[in-house]
Amino acid sequence: MLDILRRIVQDINATRDLSEALNLIVVEVKAAIHTDVCSVYMTDHTRGEHVLMATDGLRPGAVGKVRLKLGQGLTGLAATRAEPVNVDNAPAHPAFRYIAATGEAPFRGFIGVPIVRRRKVFGVLVSQQREQRKYTADEESFLVTLAAQLAGCINQAEIRQALERLDDDALSGTLFLEGVASARGLAIGEAVVVFPATALDRVPDKDIDDPEAEASRFRQAVAAELAELQRLSERMRLLLAAGDRALFDAYGLLLSSDSLVNGTLERIIAGNWAPGALRATVLEYANIFAEMDDPYLRERAADILDLGQRLLDRLQEEQVVNRHYPDHTILMGEEISVSQLLDVPPEKLKGLVSVRGTGTSHVALLARGLGVPAVFGVSNLPPGRLNGREVAVDGYTVRVCIQPSSALRQEYLKLIAEEAELSRGLQHLRDLPAETLDEHRLELHANSGLFADIAAARNSGVQGVGLYRSELHFFLRDRFPGEEEQATIYTRVLRIMEPHPVVLRTLDVGGDKPLPYFPISEQNPFLGWRGIRISLDQPDLFKTQLRAMLRAGAVYPNLAILFPMIGGVGELSEALDLLRCSEVELREDGVPVRTPRVGIMVEVPSAVYQIDRLVRMVDFVSVGSNDLTQYLLAVDRNNDRVAKLYDPLHPAVLLAIRQVVEGGQAAGKPVGVCGEMAGDPASALLLMAMGVDSLSMNLGSLLKIKWMIRSIRYEATQDVLAEAMRMDNAAAIREHANTFLDQQGLSSLLRVGK
Ligand code: PEP
Ligand code: MG
């Protein structure tokens, strides 16, 4: 059954539109469970109907015509209950409804399985049998498993269909796709799709101007691969038996055969670029082989895919170097890496869209740092088909609009201009303090990690850098940077910001931030070896970093050091010991170090409960609300499936932060917040009301938050907080805080993303 299931899903993914996909489903399912009828009803929520969309066994003329009211008949019952309805004699069931148009009178056995995705019923998969038949538990599970997979496939097929409509009539169509998280802001530009260098099935189609040149590029790749196979075969002669070497000969034969090479060339001549043409041809042939009855021939499908991959790698070697970025680039992909993002010249990068990831993934933080609007977790985005299309990124509604109509384009351009206007209008706040109308002050700091944003921070009137993510420099290298190299970086950062404080966070890798040259393979990376745990286990690396920081601090006095992921007193003592040890050693080496201010991040729940002890050991505390939320709510901050559950305004998170603030106050030590919530108006309002001393955020949010603070009375925020702390869910708390901001005339702050 598993094989059949896999094949059906694979076949559906290869279809071009929804109706082809549905027709294929009904035929294949009917054959798989040996039944008389298989049909798919799709639920049209706007009209309140289940519509028969495909059938194998009922009258073909009924397709599109038979419409059941929501909940009507046994099909409707499966949809309303969102569970399978399996009855051996349908007409005897009280919910049965006779519909003449389907010609279904003679059918008795009935099973309807809802097609559900993310809590929403998309339709019902129905099988029927002329005689009485109770579908077995195995058959029911098969249909349930298939339906669960179909929801995603149907959604994809719908998107593909919508894209084709856009191709037919570029101006009238508009396709919106929703994400789960964003970096706020609006952008419009041309999609540039990036993909992992090795994924053949994810290569996009792309139009080309010079098919002849592309064809010759492909021929060269084939010739080079043939020569390489020849060479490999020769070399293996000494190592492998003849039978084992047959693979190379088979590959050589495949490459010399007309089908694969000519099929690709034909597609290139028709206007597709070589990688896209290769993908289409290879998948077509691999599918043919995969369906063969002979097990030996079926196995050859894997060889074809492998060979296709090798050819693609060859084609991509030059492609990577030659990537062209248009002036308004919207970077798009299944998953965008930090280096792919940094590969785009900053002045050209206008937006970012990715299938995976959430608002607190590393690349999202970087996008925010650079002020680039982004939408993440667009699970039904088909990047392969979007290269070169115009795309609008709306980080406020967390949506992407593919090929906006001219009216919509105008609307987006107007909003983008308004945004720029608002931010210009806030410039006069640059050098004013973040102080409420009744003179309560707090400090606003910037989150940073690159030279580009640190220079911008200096010019935007911030009172310091509250979080410098030192690991970003580690990502941009192919090995650990040495003490000298790091000292140069940190000195430069301190010099740019002087006399304002700079909080350098020690290396925080692991979790979602593995270093390419320090691979960590774990089942549960967020609960594994990350942050300070790595630093303590690798004192060599840790001390190199601490020495580099201290050397920078010897030149400029504005250094503070922050330890990430502290989980308890023991870890903090060890980290402090190593810091002291580095200080002593440097002094012994003749470096005149100053003892810096030292702080901890509170992002592990255990640190909340030990805050009274921990805070006495350091000079300040910084709440890392991104991780604290993830760990308190047990919601992976990078998993778009559970992104709806991730909300730092959850009452439990607010209670934890309040406890930390109270702990800091009792010990007379300042408490700041440097997670993403610091830059969100509703959250910042509540944090200020709790009495945090500083908020550290990306620069894009800074003046807006300052504007908010300067427009309200601290006294009034106390009531808002008191009421919020009595509420039992994040949505109500956000609504409550936003209503207050609205009443204060700050509604233009409220176009908030997720
Ligand atoms: C946090 O966890 O809130 C934080 C600021 O650290 P990072 O996002 O880099 O993990
Ligand atoms: Mg963190």
TrEMBL record:
The keyword tRNA-binding is annotated on this UniProt entry: no
UniProt-recorded Gene Ontology molecular function terms: phosphoenolpyruvate-protein phosphotransferase activity
EC number(s) from the headed UniProt entry: 2.7.3.9
Alphabetized UniProt keyword annotations: Cytoplasm, Kinase, Magnesium, Metal-binding, Phosphotransferase system, Sugar transport, Transferase, Transport
Subcellular location per the Swiss-Prot or TrEMBL entry: Cytoplasm
Domain GAF intervals: 17-164
EC supergroup of this enzyme: transferase
Main subcellular location of this protein, as a coarse class: cytoplasm
Cofactor(s) the protein needs: Mg(2+)
Catalytic activity line of the entry: L-histidyl-[protein] + phosphoenolpyruvate = N(pros)-phospho-L-histidyl-[protein] + pyruvate
PANTHER family, per database record: PHOSPHOENOLPYRUVATE-DEPENDENT PHOSPHOTRANSFERASE SYSTEM, PHOSPHOENOLPYRUVATE-PROTEIN PHOSPHOTRANSFERASE
NCBIfam families: PRK11061.1, PTS_I_fam
Record-stated family: Belongs to the PEP-utilizing enzyme family.
Protein name: phosphoenolpyruvate--protein phosphotransferase
Lineage per the UniProt record: Bacteria, Pseudomonadati, Pseudomonadota, Gammaproteobacteria, Candidatus Competibacteraceae
